[in-house]
Design a protein that fits this description.
By secondary structure, the chain is an alpha+beta fold. Helix content is 33%, strand content 15%.
C-alpha cells in the first residue's frame, strides 16, 4: 500500500510540475527519429531554436550548432532544429533530412519533423517566437534563443553564426555555472 501511495504522489507531482508549464514552452514535437520532445522538460534551461535546410548555402552552420550542443548540453543547453522547406531548400522526406544531417554534419541535437516556420501556415510555436521578438525567419538558419525563464526570446538572423559574440553574450550567462 505504501508503494502505491508513493506512485500516486509521484504522478501528481509530475503532473503539477508540467501543469506549471505554459506559454512558449508548452509545446510538444516529434523528432526525425519519431521520438517525442516536450519543451516543458527544458524549463529553466536555454533553448536555441533554428530553422534549417539541408541544401542551403548556410548548412555549414550545422557544424557550429552541433559543436555548441556538445559543448554546452551538460550545462543545460538544448539546440533544437526545425527543418523547413519554406525557402525551397530542404530535402523531400524526414528520413532524407535525418540521414543528410547525421552523415554530413554528424548532428546529434534534436531535429523535429519538417515544419512550416513562416506565414499563415507557420507552426503556432513559430508564430509565438515571432510575436515575442517581432522577427520571423527571412531565410534558413534564423535563430531564436529562449531564456531559461521561458519568456525572454532573442532573435538572430541567418547571417549571425551560432557562436557569434552576440549570441554567446546572451547564452553563456544562462548556462548552469554561468559564463
Amino acid at each position: 500500500m505504501k508503494s502505491r501511495s508513493l506512485i500516486i504522489w509521484a504522478a501528481l507531482f509530475v503532473g503539477t510540475a508540467h501543469a506549471a508549464c505554459t506559454g512558449l514552452l508548452n509545446q510538444q514535437f516529434t523528432t526525425l527519429q519519431k521520438k517525442p520532445i516536450d519543451l516543458c522538460d527544458y524549463q529553466g534551461k536555454p533553448i536555441l531554436v533554428v530553422n534549417t535546410a539541408s541544401k542551403c548555402g548556410f548548412a555549414p552552420q550545422f557544424e557550429k550548432l552541433e559543436g555548441m550542443y556538445r559543448q554546452y548540453k551538460d550545462r543545460g543547453l538544448l539546440v533544437l532544429g526545425f527543418p523547413s522547406n519554406d525557402f525551397w531548400q530542404e530535402l523531400a522526406s524526414n528520413e532524407e533530412v535525418a540521414s543528410f544531417c547525421k552523415l554530413t554534419y554528424f548532428v546529434e541535437f534534436p531535429m523535429v519533423e519538417k515544419s512550416v516556420v513562416t506565414g499563415n501556415d507557420a507552426l503556432p510555436f513559430y508564430k509565438q517566437l515571432k510575436a515575442a521578438t517581432g522577427a520571423a525567419p527571412r531565410w534558413n538558419f534564423h535563430k531564436y534563443l529562449i531564456a531559461p525563464d521561458g519568456k525572454t526570446v532573442y532573435s538572430f538572423g541567418t547571417m549571425t553564426e551560432p557562436d557569434d559574440d552576440k549570441v554567446m553574450e546572451k547564452l553563456l550567462p544562462m548556462l548552469k555555472g554561468g559564463a
